[in-house]
Amino acid sequence: MAPRGLGGKVSEAATVDLSVRRALHRVSALAVVGALGLGCTTAALKAAPSTSDDGRSPPAPTAVDEADPAAAPLAGEGAPDEGEREGEREGERPDAAPATTPDGAGTRGRCVAPRITTTTLPPGYLPAVKVGVSYVLDGDSGHYDFPNAIHQGVRLLYVNTEEAGGSEVTAFGIETKKKVIAWIRAAVDVEIAVRQDAIGTASPDADPYGRWLALLFVDGELLQERLVREGLSAYYTQFGCAPVGLHEALLYAEAEANAAHRGIWGPGPHNDYRLVFDRWIGSRTCRPNPFDGEPYC
Q1: DSSP, res 100
Q2: DSSP 176-225
Q3: Which has the closest alpha carbon to 52: 27, 86, 29, 1?
Q4: Burial class (CB in 10 A: 0-12, 13-18, 19+), 119
Q5: How far is it, in rounded angstroms, from Cα 154 to Cα 139?
Q6: Architecture of domain 12-292
Q7: No. of H helices and E strands in the chain?
Q8: From the CB of residue 162, how many other CB atoms can be counted at a distance below 10 Å?
Q9: 43: closest CA among 153, 205, 189, 157?
């Protein structure tokens, strides 16, 4: 989801407050590193904040609506804090534009798309671990239960679905959330690979709200790629393109959705993505703008 305001700016006071909050909520290196299967290390990892940014506790569990399984909460789905729902990492580490297109197993028309799995992660990610699902906030964020009883908010990288609650809620965002819940409920394995912090070799990268920035796999399939391929999100590049391999997978998934007029690429109750792309891409050149007639590959 988009940062608060079109430019995704966070005030200086908010930035200082968030830095203090994140420092207060760091957990011991041994517990979290062990949860991510990295063995012993002295690097401390950032933990989830115990409260949201306005001081409220995370939402309490709600009952499952058996009449509508797709819309049912996952063991405690609740309404997110406004800041958590809208927050995105300001100045998220920009990755260099991929210079080449590697060989891959899938195709999007004439675009060759590599397959991203938990064993073919790009450099800079911690090993994927199996997680439990606490609740889904919307299509691109939720709370997950990591090993060693670590309960953590997670923001999915490189997608930005429409809002499922709050002042910017859309019908399309609500339907996207229902689909993500249904996919996760039907999965046997849910795995998360957290991106490493730029300043530490074994520390999770987190946004200003303490959510770990990550890739999520559902029964081996990259959820971000499915979201883009189904037209539920465009390939989100406001803070830079993904690394080589992941970039092509997401870009060509978008090409497929666009060609098939799925979701945001067809008529329907969703945002005007010509305006969205103008905001996301701006002067960046690491990906084409399909609304300007630029080819995907």
Answers
A1: S
A2: HHHHHHHHHHH-S-EEEEEBBPTT-SSSB-B-TTSPEEEEEEETTEEHHH
A3: 86
A4: exposed
A5: 11
A6: Beta Barrel (2.40)
A7: 7, 9
A8: 26
A9: 205
Per-residue burial over 257-291, b if 16 or more Cβ lie within 10 Å, else e, is bbeeebbbbeeeebeebeebbeebbeeeebbbebe
Strand partners of residue 191: 130, 217
Q: How far is CA 235 from CA 122, 134, 146, 226, 238, in A?
A: 17, 26, 27, 11, 9
Tokens at 213, concatenated: 């920035």
What is the CB neighbour count within 10 angstroms for residue 35? Answer: 18
Answer whether 241's CB lies under 8 Å from 254's CB. no
Report how far residue 2's alpha carbon sits from residue 134's, in angstroms, rounded to the nearest whole number: 23
Predicted confidence (pLDDT) per residue in 108-143, tens digit: 446 778 899 999 999 999 999 999 999 999 999 999
Domain positions in the chain are 12-292
| pLDDT per residue as tens digits for the range 216-241 | 999 999 999 999 999 999 999 998 99
SS3 118: coil
pLDDT at position 280, please? 86
Whether the per-residue pLDDT at 154 is higher than 50: the answer is yes
Instruction: Give the C-alpha separation, 74 to 172, whole Å.
Output: 20
Kindly report the pTM of this predicted structure: 0.70
